[in-house]
Design goal:
Elements (H helix, E strand, L loop, with lengths): L1 E4 L1 H12 L6 H18 L6 E6 L3 H15 L3 E6 L6 H9 L3 E2 L5 H7 L2 E5 L13 H7 L6 E5 L21 E5 L2 E2 L7 H5 L1 E5 L12 E3 L2 H7 L14 E5 L7 H11 L5 E6 L1 H10 L4 E4 L13 E4 L7 H11 L5 E3 L2 H8 L10 E3 L3 H8 L3 H6 L1 H12 L2 E4 L5 E3 L5 E3 L12 H14 L4 H20 L6 H15 L5
The chain binds ligand NAX, adenosine-5'-diphosphate and potassium ion (K).
């Protein structure tokens, strides 16, 4: 599990650790790790041109001491001091090692042509949008031809949330000190951070419970259910899919496709005539019930339901949603199911668990917040929705996040923007529903599904456009990639 923390959490841990160490120790650890990543990027340090963007705080101090180390190895290091003050000892160290301070008027040209730029403008001490001259420098970095390395967090990215207001440095690599910051894992911040390298400065024992966590392949290997010798199709879990309508037959086909690849013992599909015909012809594996009335009485027992993709929002759909939600098993609500719930909150009054899987637009209807506000602060809104609605929330988008009251938000780091195409959400809903039916909690089912869906998206795209059906087809390969034993 990758864990990440807010700026306040990091600061408190740093203070506790610093109290036990000689002054300056942490900054030297940080600078040493930073210089070593920079040296690797440069390949040959000697005679390379390095520009340091130095703010007034300790983030600038890290950059100066890393500059000192590179200068000692023969790099030509120039510092742009942007703050009202500069870390004194760090600046002296740089100058003693042969580095120099650049006239601000020469900064733009130097940034453009340097082999490497180190962004030490602000780190966890930043507040609000970058002020001048920082903002101008961050913009100038966009023209850089060399490697851009951010110290701790890219300046302009809020370390605690990933929010970007105004100019921000777009880094190729972010070298982060002690622990991941939440803003490095959540878009838009994650997109600015590039590859994130963690430098161990000894903070581990001082860190509190994390703010957010990201599953790794090893976590999936532990969490994903496997069939055992005594398994049969019923014991492996049966998932019900209530999706599709005369207008949207494809959503039913894709949701059933995701469910069939998600490891349940059986998929039961229930719907109207048109989607029934499509599901039958695409998936002979599914057990299909054509519904003459909006009731699930004839469907047979399931351990979890997927409700909503392409279902429509008419009275019939509302009645079917009410019937599914009146069951005593976990229900995943997606797409039209969410529209129905937004109109009629009483549908959510149930004892068994609920997992909702909205994108920002669907969530905006549920909690009355603007779509843009949700995109800009995904964590806050997902947390708020989980608390207000009393459900588990998987908020889709460029960074998918899973929130449940009193748990760290799980952020998914495996996706690809190729997934931004119609129907991939239906596959995700089917997959997550299959994991629920196998007994995973909403929190684990949602985060495992997001992880596998992202990996499958990458495998299916491989640098080119994908269709949603390809994602379902790539799910077995995604599962194989994270599971060590496949008996
Ligand atoms: N505290 C520690 O023990 C360690 C800190 N380290 C480094 O120190 C950093 C934190 O240092 P600081 O607490 O000094 O804070 P920062 O260096 O992140 O920034 C604080 C300075 O930036 C200015 N500032 C804040 N917001 C601004 C904005 N929007 N526009 C322009 N200027 C702004 C403030 O006036 C202040 O002078 C970490 O990110 C990390 O890089 C590392 O050396 C590891 C050890
Ligand atoms: N920019 C992006 N980067 C990564 N994944 C994305 C991006 N945009 C969308 N996705 C993913 O693609 C899927 C789209 O689902 P959804 O919005 O429900 O579409 P649909 O209803 O057409 O299936 C989600 O899993 C979402 O997280
Ligand atoms: K920085």
């Amino acid at each position: 599990m990758k864990t990440a923390y807010t700026a306040d959490q990091i600061r408190q841990a740093e203070q506790a650790l610093m109290a036990r160490l000689p002054e300056g120790t942490l900054m030297q650890r940080a600078a040493s790790g930073l210089a070593s990543v920079c040296a690797d990027l440069l390949g040959r340090v000697y005679a390379s041109r390095v520009v340091l963007l130095v703010g007034s705080g300790d983030n600038g101090g890290d950059a100066l001491y890393a500059g000192q180390r590179l200068a000692r190895r023969g790099a030509r290091v120039e510092a742009v001091t942007a703050g009202s003050k500069t870390h004194e000892a760090g600046l002296r160290a740089l100058l003693d090692a042969g580095g120099r301070v650049l006239d601000p008027s020469a900064a733009g040209a130097a940034i453009e042509t340097a082999d490497l730029i180190i962004d030490g403008l602000v780190g966890i001490g930043a507040s609000g949008a970058l002020r001048e001259p920082y903002a101008e420098l961050a913009k100038a970095v966009a023209a850089a031809r060399g490697h851009v390395v951010a110290v701790d967090v890219p300046s302009g990215v809020d370390a605690s949330t990933g929010r970007v207001e105004g100019a921000a440095v777009r880094a190729r690599v972010t070298v982060t000190m002690g622990a991941y910051k939440t803003g490095l894992l959540v878009d838009p911040g994650a997109a600015y951070a590039g590859r994130v390298e963690l430098v161990d400065i000894g903070l581990g024992a001082y860190l509190p419970d994390p703010d957010v966590a990201a599953l790794t392949g090893a976590d999936l290997d532990v969490l994903l259910p496997r069939p055992r010798n005594e398994s049969d199709k019923y014991r492996r879990g049966v998932v019900g899919v209530a999706a599709g309508s005369d207008l949207f037959t494809g959503a039913a086909v894709l949701a059933v496709g995701g469910a069939l690849r998600g490891g349940a013992g059986m998929v039961r599909y229930a719907g109207r005539a048109a989607p029934v015909a499509q599901v039958r012809s695409h998936w002979p594996e599914a057990v299909v019930t054509q519904l003459d009335a909006p009731s699930i009485d004839r469907v047979g027992r399931v351990q979890a339901w997927v409700l909503g993709p392409g279902l429509g929002t008419d009275d019939w759909a509302h009645e079917l949603a009410a019937a599914v939600l009146a069951s005593d098993v976990p229900v995943l609500i997606d797409a039209d199911g969410l529209t129905l719930v937004a109109k009629d909150r009483t549908l959510l009054r149930r004892a068994a668990p609920v997992l909702i899987t909205p994108h920002a637009g669907e969530l905006s209807r549920l909690i009355g917040a603007g779509r843009d506000a949700i995109e800009a602060a995904r964590l806050d809104h997902a947390r708020r929705a989980a608390a207000e609605l009393g459900v588990t929330v998987l908020l889709k988008g460029s960074t998918t996040v899973v929130a449940e009251d009193s748990r760290p938000v799980r952020v998914n780091t495996t996706g690809t923007s190729w997934l931004a195409t119609g129907g991939t959400g239906d596959v995700l809903a089917g997959l997550a529903g299959a994991l629920l039916a196998q007994g995973l909690s909403c929190y684990d089912a949602a985060s495992c599904a997001a992880y596998l869906h992202g990996v499958a998206g990458r495998l299916a795209a491989d640098g080119a456009p994908l269709a949603a059906g390809d994602v379902a087809s790539a799910l077995p390969a995604a599962i194989r990639a994270v599971t060590s034993t496949n008996s």
